[in-house]
Amino acid sequence: MITKSIPSLFTVGNLFLGIVAIILVFNRETEYAAIMVIIAMLLDGVDGRVARALNVTSEFGKELDSLSDVISFGVAPAFIMYVVAFQDLNTAAAWIVTALFPICGALRLARFNVVSGTPGYFIGLPIPAAGGVLCTLALFHKDMPVAVLLISTLALSYLMVSNIKYPNFKKVGLPKGSLWLIPLIIIVAVVLGLMYREHLTKIIFVPLVLYALYGLKKNAKLRILRLRRKKRQNSEETVSSDHSA
Known about the structure:
By secondary structure, the chain is mostly helical. The protein is 78% helix and 2% strand. The protein is built from 8 helices and 2 strands; from the N terminus they run ααααβααβαα. The protein has helices at 2-26, 30-54, 59-86, 91-114, 127-137, 146-161, 181-195, 197-244, and strands spanning 121-123, 165-167. Helix 1 (2-26) packs parallel to helix 3 and helix 3 (59-86) packs antiparallel against helix 6 (146-161). The longest helix is centred in the last third of the chain and has 48 residues, at 197-244. The radius of gyration is 21 Å and the shape is globular. The model has no long low-confidence stretch (mean pLDDT 79).
């Protein structure tokens, strides 16, 4: 019984940190709030691996994970961005853009739970990555125009519900003998995050943005290849029709 509960404890920890992030951001502790989201990402990354390593995967765990992700990587990052950047905008526009991000995240998670995707890939930008980008991007609010932050929020919302494929690293296995290392890694991550909060969150921003852009690049490349293939087929059909005439 205790073994079956271990993965859910990581998921509940993810949810708890998302709630703490929301509380922190309303107390103007945006850097700490972003750190809570990043640590929640770490917990989200290991709960499924722990479940598979212990052979205790379940539908309950899957649903709990999705519900936790909506709070930690949808609502919390959206509130972080709203508090630091959107409060001086038109009220209706600020509220709509802020609400749109977790809504798109919820839609993406619902699709993930019911639609079987391509093996090894996610369809749409995963909500933990989108939330990680948004909450760390918010830390640059003093260096970026509000319009850029607004467009970035809308773009991340779209990427989550798009059909763009992103590599799935969650299926990477975790040896059962190394499970004891997970609490140690989490503790080290928390300590480093609190000690170097100004730098850690901005360093993590870089790989998350590259991951988001990777999907766009790959999608654009596939579209170009399809267009070239279609043009080639059209030209071949035109040549063959000319010869037959």
